[in-house]
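DM from R.C. (forwarded with permission)

"hey, sorry to bug you on a friday — could you get me a structure for this? deadline for the figure draft is monday and I only need the backbone to look sensible"
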Amino acid sequence: MDPQWAAPPAVDTCLVSSDASRGRRGGTLIDERVLELAVHEAMLKDPDAYRPAECRCGCRRLHVHDRRERRARGAGLVVTVMVFLCAQCRASWRVLPAFLARCLWRTWEVVEAALSGDERPLVPARTVQRWQARLAQPARAATQALATSGDATLRAVAQRVGLDGTRGALAAAYAEATGGASLLAPLAALLHRLSSGLRLM
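My reply, with the result:
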């Protein structure tokens, strides 16, 4: 039997907790197409642009329920977020644009700038240290989500990083494989879609 210290280090619970496992109706969806504010503002003009295809219960009738505001710290933005209500189970779904970092209260652009050492975004040093620590944590759940997605490119990224790779290494490998301009936003949105609630950081 392996000694206790041979086990992989624990990952922050908030990064791997599933929305479905909590028995919640509704929750947050991330629109992976929306990586820029201009695209988001154009889509707000048509309620159908953000409307989810279906609810978790299988119902395809989701109605516009509300518009809420999210303040993105460090970017000076107030972003309108669409909320939809399922006609069958009454679950409400918030649809975030992919450029907003879920649960971090900032845009991914500000997060990436702070992690790269750029002093322009006013992000507390302690917050940046927490983000760096999260990117250094094992990416086992995220790697497994990519490997079992059924997509050959995602499987190759997962195999390249391996089960012992970090979240930062996974983000770098994914950005390299897809040629994305943003290092974190596309992968964070993808992970949330593959396993609702799974966070990159």
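R.C.: lifesaver. The longest strand covers residues 62-72.
me: no worries. Residues 11-194 form one domain.
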